[in-house]
């Protein structure tokens, strides 16, 4: 092996959309490339200006892929503290309003030349292959690893005829993931179960969180209060991220939870409704816009 191993990471979203499949694969690419032993390529969607306006927050838009790439790498450097050495390539994507998701247009496996097709990491393999047509991923790459982020079955159950749709989607997901992936990794047990899959947090832990943990230990050892009697909840502020279930539980158990203070952090289409629902509770629930987890 005279040349470096090539790893291509394909994902379903990109900054400035602050969603898990935009952020976590970006960190994955940065840290895999950090020691210089592998050639890493991150493959992300490029949206039309019209779709950018629908997806990206704070009226942020880009006139060219290179402009977006510069934004992404600058954001990453501010959070990691080092310059990243991986490549970014774009595939054509289209935002599906009904699904609130970006879908690939065409055969995105062609982004990577055949001579570089060693390992492919498909972030949300079912999402990336629902409409895939072209060369089979297992034929193109020597190894294809699917990383399952999202339980799409739970999302679908909330729609009209949701139970039937979820039943059909379960078998479709099993089919496409089985066809296109050699190995399937589920980030948690809350995701759809796939045959021969394993559960593993391959995201790892951001070093900033470890530093925060060390500071909390020092506070405890010195006799200071490290944690208040409260809780926080982080997620895009749309009902299907669990806010409805959370607020229902809080309402049903307000008496037992007397004295609890809860902070919600998120930005999304349902922010105003979540804010109004939280006001009706007797316990203290503060609603904040989304922010960096650290």
UniProtKB/TrEMBL annotation:
The keyword Metal-binding does not apply. It is found in: Membrane; Plastid, Chloroplast. One of its GO terms (cellular component) is chloroplast outer membrane. Keywords: Chloroplast, Membrane, Plastid, Transferase. One of its GO terms (molecular function) is digalactosyldiacylglycerol synthase activity. InterPro entries: DGDG1/2. The keyword Transferase applies. GO terms for biological process: galactolipid biosynthetic process. PANTHER family: DIGALACTOSYLDIACYLGLYCEROL SYNTHASE 2, CHLOROPLASTIC (PTHR46132). Belongs to the glycosyltransferase group 1 family. Glycosyltransferase 4 subfamily. This is Digalactosyldiacylglycerol synthase. It comes from Dipteronia sinensis.
